[in-house]
Specification:
Length: 564
């Protein structure tokens, strides 16, 4: 089986995507997603039981090279194969062969849940599936605003596509709540009867996915299309949330992209900072890495990569612990997603800025990584929406997330204080809902991030991450709400600055060692990390010159290298 590091050096990933048309890039992303999936050899057992192999696939550094391929990969293996595997292993053994076809990419799978006009209010979807006298169903999209939003359902590469489509089940005029249905979408060339897919424009600044609006015009479905039963439930919302459980699996799984993102962006930036030289005030050439302006964002990103990896390991253990309330497991996933996306986005922006004009170009990856993580922040649950739900449940004491293993630490004290303030605000008001909406809701994401910071710090300490990295992580988390620490007299602004400098001085001499420990070098394709890479890259660029310039072309190249 080809490893992903070998795959990274193949034509499949070396191909210059920016020079391809959108359709060609989309097709290439499908090829890459298939290649990555097959390299990891994910089985029905892996996706059903969420084995370590399943989680590790999402942590593979190769995924950051093509965000579209990662999107397709996680839809295929988690949302679609994972959902179908649950039924195949219990009530629907007839689905086993389909799951295996999806895992081999002989069939493309899609997950049609969110509607254009509903957003996060997915329980009140309008797509309907009406039971017919024959035992089959009539699947219908009442209005254009009820179309399924985002899933890439247009025909691709001649591979047939099926989708799990969620619709309100109607039996004898009675609505029995949202249910999943297995629906044929296209045969790889043409849409199936009654199914319409409108291709959306690309998101921009990220690898294009063929996102679409999908609607159904009285599509006839066989009885076997229903995944589940017809019975009326006394707990419709609970049953619905159970049926979309793989969405929360995805919230944790795709968040791990932030770890590979931090590893990749910090590696690229570090090598460029070491290579790029400027003239100092003393007249000698020095690498820009010698300046604190470059060192601080770089080492913070490196520290976060190591600490978040520890957090991810711990979060998987919590998520897989069936003795915990499922809402607790979902809460842990939400905290991890919030803090992972936060760190990755801040690092991408800061490191890209410090690369100057080079940070803007797609071939150097950082601008793309920023856009890809923006997608992650929304996919499988918008972070703000998840945060508001988690804080509301916590204040209502519906459940309790795992407590700190270092309760006297500054991050644990910060978390407790934020929630105590919110509790006091809503409990002192005659209208809980109004007080929550007016005063607490705008701070929900900050509160959930504070929980994530504390969890990350605790797990890093408990798992023995290097102290200098833990110290850098701690200082960075403190700086996200430095006013609180100063108000409480825990630290002064000057003390925070000195603590950061001490941690940086301890970590900086170990930079090359830390970069090597990330093991991402085989996946780095950016040309600016070395003179050799840049020279090879520059030879692939289109050249426009006069005949007289041909004789001086090589010296010009040398001068350009000197400037870079």
């Amino acid at each position: 089986m080809t490893s992903t590091s070998q795959l990274c050096q193949s034509d499949l990933f070396e191909k210059r995507s920016e020079l391809l048309s959108r359709n060609a890039r989309v097709a290439l992303s499908y090829e890459r997603a298939r290649a990555i999936g097959l390299a990891h050899d994910i089985t029905l057992h892996d996706t059903l039981d969420l084995t370590q192999k399943f989680w590790d696939m999402h942590l593979d550094p190769i995924i950051v090279l093509d965000g579209a391929a990662f999107t397709l990969l996680t839809i295929q293996y988690n949302l679609v194969a994972g959902t179908l595997a649950q039924y195949a292993a219990t009530t629907r053994p007839d689905l086993v062969s389909l799951v295996e076809d999806i895992l081999r990419w002989d069939v493309i799978g899609q997950f049609c849940l969110t509607e254009l006009g509903r957003g996060l209010d997915i329980f009140r979807m309008k797509t309907s599936a009406t039971l017919l006298p024959t035992g089959g169903f009539d699947l219908h999209t009442p209005l254009p605003s009820d179309a399924k939003f985002m899933p890439p359902t247009v025909p691709v590469k001649g591979v047939p596509c099926v989708a799990i489509v969620f619709a309100q089940l109607y039996v004898n005029g009675e609505c029995r709540g949202p249910r999943p249905f297995l629906v044929n979408i296209n045969d790889g060339y043409h849409m199936c009867n009654g199914v319409t897919s409108k291709l959306l424009p690309p998101r921009g600044c990220s690898a294009p996915v063929n996102h679409a609006l999908t609607s159904f015009h009285h599509v006839g479905l066989p009885p076997s299309a229903l995944l589940g039963d017809l019975d009326k439930s006394n707990s419709m919302h609970h049953d619905f949330m159970t049926s979309i459980w793989r969405v929360m699996v995805g919230a944790l799984a795709i968040s791990s992209m932030a770890i590979s993102d931090l590893q990749m962006s910090s590696y690229i930036a570090a090598r460029y900072f070491q290579r790029r030289h400027v003239t100092s005030v003393y007249g000698n050439l020095v690498p820009i890495l010698s300046y604190r302006t470059q060192q601080l964002p770089l080492l913070h990103a490196v520290a976060q990569a190591f600490v978040l990896r520890a957090l991810y390991r711990w979060a998987i253990e919590q998520f897989m612990d069936k003795s915990l309330d499922v809402r607790v497991r979902h809460g842990v996933a939400a905290c991890c997603k919030a803090v992972m996306v936060q760190h990755a986005q801040v690092a991408n922006h800061a490191l890209s800025e410090r690369m100057g004009a080079q940070g803007l170009f797609e071939y150097n990856r950082l601008s793309n990584l920023y856009s890809e993580i923006r997608g992650v922040s929304i996919a499988e649950g918008d972070i703000l929406g998840l945060s508001m739900r988690l804080v509301a449940d916590t204040l209502a004491q519906m459940y309790t997330l795992p407590l700190s293993t270092h309760p006297d630490g500054p991050l644990a004290l910060h978390e407790i204080s934020l929630f105590d303030e919110a509790t006091e605000t809503v409990s002192s008001s005659s209208d809980f809902t109004q007080a929550f909406t007016q005063y607490v809701q705008p701070r929900c994401q900050l509160m959930v991030e504070s929980m994530g910071h504390r969890m990350a710090y605790d797990t890093a300490v408990d798992q023995g991450v290097s102290q200098c990295l833990i110290d850098l992580y701690l200082i960075n988390a403190i700086k996200t709400d430095a006013a609180w620490y100063v108000e409480r007299g825990i630290f002064t602004r000057q003390a925070i600055m000195r603590m950061e400098d001490t941690a940086l001085l301890a970590a900086l001499p170990r930079l090359d060692e830390l970069l090597a420990a990330m093991q991402v070098e085989p996946y780095v394709l950016s040309p600016i990390i070395s003179d050799e890479r840049w020279e090879k890259f520059s030879k692939t660029l289109p050249v426009y010159s006069s005949p007289q310039a041909e004789e001086t072309a090589q010296p010009t190249l040398v001068l350009e290298r000197a400037r870079l």
